[in-house]
Amino acid sequence: MIISFYYIILMNKIYNIIENLKVIPVASIENLDFALELGKVLNNSNLPIVEITFRTEIAKDIIFNLTKEYPNLLVGAGTVLNIKQVKKAVNNGAKFIVTPGFNSKLVDYCIDNNIFIIPGINTPTFIEWGLERKLKVLKFFPAEVSGGISFLEAISGPYPSEKVKFIPTGGINNINFINYLKMDNVLACAGSWLVKGSSLQAIESRIKETYSLIKAQIK
C-alpha cells in the first residue's frame, strides 16, 4: 500500500500531539450539554483531546458540537466498526478514528482517504498488518486481559519502539496507567477513568492528579 505524503504529515502531527499529552480521555456520552461542559473542562485543564465512542445514538452530534464550540480540541471517534461510521464521524468533524480491532477494509479506507486511524491489536499478526501499512501507532486492546505490560515487554524485541508504539486501553485506570507510560513502546494511555461520573469538578481534579503523577514519575 502506498501512503500519501499528506497522510504522513497528518500522522506525524497527531502522533506528536498524543505523545505530548500522554493520556486520551475516552467518553461514552448520552447528553449533549454534559459533553459541551466536558469539552470546556478539558480545554481548561490543558488536555485538549477526547475520544467520543460510537456507543450512543448522539455520538456524531456530540462530535459536531464539540469541534464547533472548541476548535482547538482534538476530537476523535472511538468504537468505530465500519466505513459508514467513519464517514459519519469525519463528516461531523472527527480528526481521528479508533477501532477496537483491525478491520482491514476500514483501515485501508481511512489511509486512502487521509483519515488518521488507530486500529486495535493484541497479537503479533495484527501488529504486522499495521507495519505493512506504515502505521506508527496502534491501539493495544483489551490491554489488561491481553497480557498488559508483560505482552508489551515481550513484543518490544521484534517490534521496537522506533518502528511502532502503542496506546493501551481496556482495564487502564488511575493506578496502573503510569506503569504503562514508563515503557518505551507506549505512546500514551487511553481510557474512561479520566472522565467517569457526572461531576465535572471531580473530572477536572482527576486530570490534575493524573498530570501531577506523570510529572513526578515520567522522565
Structure explained in plain terms:
With 219 residues, the chain is an alpha/beta fold. The protein has a single domain (5-212), classed as Aldolase class I (TIM Barrel, Alpha-Beta Barrel). The protein is 45% helix and 16% strand. It has nine helices and nine strands. It has helices at 5-21, 32-44, 59-69, 83-91, 104-112, 124-132, 148-155, 177-181, 200-217, and strands spanning 23-27, 49-53, 74-78, 96-98, 116-118, 120-121, 137-140, 165-168, 189-191. Strands 5-4-3-2-1-9 form a six-stranded parallel sheet, with helices on both faces. Helix 4 (83-91) links the parallel strand 3 (74-78) and strand 4 (96-98). Helix 2 (32-44) crosses helix 3 (59-69). The longest helix is centred in the last third of the chain and has 18 residues, at 200-217.
